[in-house]
Design brief:
A: mainly alpha; two-stranded antiparallel ribbon; 4 strands; B: alpha/beta; 4-stranded antiparallel β-sheet; about 40% helix
Chain lengths: ~400, ~250
């Protein structure tokens, strides 16, 4: 049933984008590892994790789009789920350091030794296993989203009020993770990672593999999201977004509908965070900063919310721009980002992909109108009408 | 239990509700029989929409009893549950899913399992397809089934919403001002449609258009200031001095 669900009814452009991402998953590592340095095809080592980072952001934006673009829930706290997934992965990577830390404690990470802790806190147990950490990457953000959503959606908190409490949620986590007593490394966070699954995390081969995994999971998430939004459930979500009370009076439990997509989206954000941490080599409480979550909203808006491929394109473009811009004029980046958001809201309210789609839809309508016109003239066929017909068919 | 409770499709007794001290409904009581088509009239602020809010679970009454289909107490249930029990509601302003096609609007309204997973793995069966096609015929939108609902005219949106209610297969239909903004031709067609619908279920219509109510030719309840002012045939009600005073004007 699940495979049938995943393989059904996708739009062509979704499949094209998924295929392109998979192609990147193969070509970028090959171009990095096999193409000789200096050749045109060679992808330098430092670019691989950078592109991997873009794809993590793309996955985060896709997750946000599921709730914002399709269900109208503007979450200004999605960075929290991303960071939690990142911390779960970071805890695994910390435990892999073992006795190679500065204090050479076989069990305790350096920051715990520094704080004079004698035992590993209970919530760090299990994180020496990759499978356990992987499970937590999904469960922790998923559970938080479930509990948060349970209360918020049941109490019918919507619109700007919901946005504000999601913002408060990520801010509360930011403050909590800053505290040393929490046992997550305080403001330094978790870093100095050595291995992942026994492979050196700095090695080009590992980085190439991480990039390929990121691309693969992004493509899978895109297909999963597409299956969700094109199902009847997805249509109900759009119904909730456009006319919540109508959906409710048709007999749908709006709170359950929202809760499911919110939880799925949080898990997706968690995966993005888990893939991000080994590629950038650090996770700290700064990832919970409200501004980060707002940036995700901007990527999604720029790319086009409610389109699935829009947020992927938006996240990659804006972050590519950020890389260039912060190198050239670092102090102006925030102004540029703000200007970009305002310009998108004013001139491209549907985002890049939404606007392009609207344009092609309008063209199709025009062609249909021309075809209908032709149908009328076809009643008195003439050579001119036949010529017109071939033109319209093109 | 009162015999009225067990026989009627909808039973309201002594229902009152206040908002910030304003009494929207004041000891409102009336009964709808199974298969009945009832028109409700009354001036603005008479409590017509509040009454619908109470029946559909959007608002809880401060006091009074509301029973549906015999002995189901509606004051303890929420909107989704009440909708699933078989009460459909059409809003005053036509409310359809604008970014869905007409077909999808009806598919969503179909009376099928409405859980997250049953909708996630839903497949359109031939039976459901036939049902949607039948409703498209009834509301005369077959030719436009693949168009977005946003592109329909006002009158067509009203009809689509009525179609969605039919897809819900309710036992009781609450229809709030169905002919507002319709042309005369559309209005009389809507009267025919509602009369047709009322053959198989109970319908309550709130309307201001007296010509339309005359077309329906059914029992009329006039509300004012949150309670029933008069009840009976249209001629009886429109000759009632209290109704003339409060609503029709001299």
């Amino acid at each position: 049933m699940i495979t049938e669900f995943l393989l059904s009814r996708h739009e062509k452009k979704t499949l094209v984008v998924a295929a392109l991402i998979l192609l990147a998953a193969i070509l970028v590592p090959l171009a990095n590892l096999l193409a000789p340095e200096g050749s045109l095809l060679h992808v330098p080592d430092h670019l691989v994790p950078l592109m991997g980072k873009y794809l993590c952001y793309a996955l985060l934006a896709l997750a946000l789009d599921l709730v914002w673009g399709y269900c109208g829930i503007l979450s200004l706290g999605h960075g929290a789920f991303f960071a939690l997934g990142g911390y779960a992965m970071g805890m695994y990577l910390m435990r892999q350091i073992g006795p190679r830390g500065v204090y050479a404690n076989p069990l305790l990470p350096d920051f715990m030794v520094f704080l004079n802790w004698k035992e590993l806190p209970w919530y760090w147990t299990g994180f020496n296993h990759f499978w356990f950490a992987g499970l937590m990457v999904l469960l922790v953000p998923g559970l938080l989203a479930f509990v948060f959503g349970w209360f918020a959606f049941r109490s019918r908190v919507t619109g700007v009020y919901l946005s504000i409490i999601t913002q408060a949620m990520t801010y509360a986590l930011l403050l909590a993770f800053f505290r040393n007593e929490m046992g997550f490394g305080g403001n330094n966070g978790l870093t100095d990672f050595k291995d992942i699954l026994g492979a050196n995390i700095q090695a080009p081969e590992t980085r190439a593999t991480l990039f390929a995994m990121t691309a693969l999971l992004l493509a899978l998430s895109l297909i999963l999201s597409s299956a969700i939004v094109r199902s009847k459930y997805g249509k109900v979500l759009i119904g909730v977004r456009d006319a919540e009370s109508r959906t409710r009076f048709l007999g749908y439990r709006v709170e359950n509908m929202k809760l499911f997509i919110f939880t799925v989206s949080a898990m997706m954000a968690g995966i993005a965070g888990a893939l991000y941490v080994p590629q950038v080599g650090i996770i700290n409480p700064g990832e919970f900063a409200p501004a980060n979550s707002i940036e995700v909203v901007i990527w999604t808006a720029v790319g086009g919310r409610g389109t699935l491929i829009g947020p992927i394109i938006g996240a990659i473009l804006v972050n590519f721009g950020k890389t260039i811009f912060t190198a050239a004029f670092p102090e102006f980046w925030l102004f540029a980002l703000g200007a970009l958001f305002i310009a998108t809201t004013l001139f491209l309210p549907k985002g890049i992909v939404g606007t392009v789609m609207q344009g092609s839809k309008a063209r199709a309508e025009r062609q249909k109108a021309v075809a209908a016109e032709k149908g009328r003239t076809a009643a008195q066929p003439s050579q001119g009408a036949a010529a017109h017909e071939t033109q319209a068919a093109e | 239990m009162d015999s009225k409770i067990t026989n009627s499709i909808l039973y309201l007794d002594n229902v009152s509700v206040s908002f910030d001290g304003f009494r929207a409904l004041n000891a409102l009581s009336f009964v709808i029989e199974p298969g009945e088509l009832r028109a409700i009239i009354g001036p603005n602020g008479a409590g017509k929409t509040t009454m619908m809010d109470i029946i559909t679970g959007k608002t809880r009454p401060d006091q009074g009893e509301v029973y549906f289909d015999g002995a189901i107490d509606l004051t303890r249930k929420d909107e989704a549950e009440i909708a699933q029990l078989g009460i459909g509601r059409k809003f005053q302003k036509p409310t359809v899913f604008e970014s869905h096609t007409i077909w999808d609007n009806l598919e969503l309204a179909l009376n099928r399992k409405r859980g997250v997973f049953s909708t996630l793995f839903y497949r359109l069966t031939t039976e459901d397809k036939a049902r949607i096609e039948h409703i498209l015929e009834t509301v005369r939108l077959t030719a436009r089934k693949n168009d977005y609902a946003a592109n329909l005219s006002h009158g067509q949106k009203q009809w689509l919403e009525i179609g969605m209610l039919l897809a819900q297969e309710p036992k009781l239909l609450l229809v709030d001002e169905p002919v507002a903004g319709m042309t005369d031709a559309e209005t009389s067609e809507t009267a025919l449609l509602l009369k047709d619908i009322a053959k198989t279920r109970s319908v309550v219509v709130v309307e201001h258009d007296m010509g339309f109510i005359r077309d329906l030719g059914v029992k009329v309840t006039c509300l004012a200031e949150g309670s029933v002012l008069a009840e009976g045939s249209i001629d009886f009600v429109s000759n009632d001095p209290k109704v003339i005073e409060n609503y029709l004007g001299r």
